[in-house]
Write a structure and sequence with these properties.
By secondary structure, the chain is α/β, with parallel strands linked by helices. It folds into 2 domains: 182 residues, 3-Layer(aba) Sandwich (Rossmann fold), CATH 3.40.50.450; 113 residues, Phosphofructokinase domain (Rossmann fold, 3-Layer(aba) Sandwich). The protein is 43% helix and 18% strand. The chain has 11 helices and 11 strands. It has a 7-stranded mixed beta sheet with strand order 3-2-1-4-5-10-11, with helices on both faces. Helix 1 links the parallel strand 1 and strand 2. Helix 1 packs parallel to helix 9. It is elongated. The relative contact order is 0.17. The structure holds adenosine-5'-diphosphate and 6-O-phosphono-beta-D-fructofuranose (F6P). Adenosine-5'-diphosphate binds next to helix 2 and helix 4.
Amino acid sequence: MKRIGVITSGGDAPGMNAAIRAIVRKAIFYGIEVYGIHRGFMGLINSDFIKLDISSVGDIIHRGGTVLLTARCDEFKTEEGQEKALKNLEAFGIEGMIVIGGDGSLRGANVLSKQGIPTIGIPTTIDNDIPFTDNCIGFDTAVNTVVDAVNKVRDTATSHERTFIIEVMGRAAGHLALYTGLASGAETILVPEIPFDLNDVCTKIEKGYIRGKLHSIIVVAEGAASSIEIGKVIKEKTDLETRVIILGHLQRGGTPSAHDRILASRFGGKAVDLLKDNVRDKMVGLIKGELVVNDIEKVLAASKPLDMELYRLADILSF
Ligand code: ADP
Ligand code: F6P
């Protein structure tokens, strides 16, 4: 393999730049050229390619976002779009691709594989909803960002003896809510994977105040329910002072944690190793600290269950 391409696609996540850096430097170490493609699959279609040399990825390991830019590109889901992308890859002599992104981006990577381009996927999303890896790049940073925000909310919640409903991202998954809820000592964690009854939530909040708690923090995953509605119901049922905060896209920004930089460096380096060794159509992952490699198709056919042991622990500790 003489020349490979790399894209960042879908929702950005802290650590994408560290992965790009690792890919470029490991590839150059092996004498392989790397082309970065701007704006994910959109850049493949629009022929937005740029050669990346060693210094082009200097001073980016600590930056959030992605220097290659990212996009959601529906055209790549069509046959016409895919044909254009393949023609451009051929024109640039790209023999292998590395796709850095979430679940949707892996679907796009699978399309490239099916069209005959050896492709490796790197799981990168703050949602952490990709199976066959304990962590996706970006998750650890997002957890720390949310916990930092909840710490601040807790100060004002205590002063005013208020109940706060804090909505976190995660799309249809509750991993981010569970980890941040546990780490920030939330009284209640609401996730899409587990049905809940708001009467029980209210009873728990009231019991907390009765035994002297000065505030109540409810972390709700965006996929579980509308935080605004939850706030209204709790206010109606308990008459407690409630406030709702939707943390939104600040969860996707910021300098990547050391954990995410290391993960991104390992994933990026491994992805290049795989292409060099003619391994194709795989996703790299990390299970119990060890790098693992699985078929992209197998990953796409599975889903990542919520860590129920952690959920039960969080529930017990929050009484
Ligand atoms: P993420 O990768 O963060 O989950 P998306 O779900 O938006 O983000 O997917 C990112 C991009 O991957 C899409 O905009 C599209 O270009 C590509 N993609 C997603 N699903 C498919 C698919 N079934 N076929 C081809 N490309 C896809
Ligand atoms: O997949 C990452 C994510 O941040 C989800 O948690 C969220 O639902 C979605 O992307 C938001 O997408 P957008 O950036 O298009 O608003």
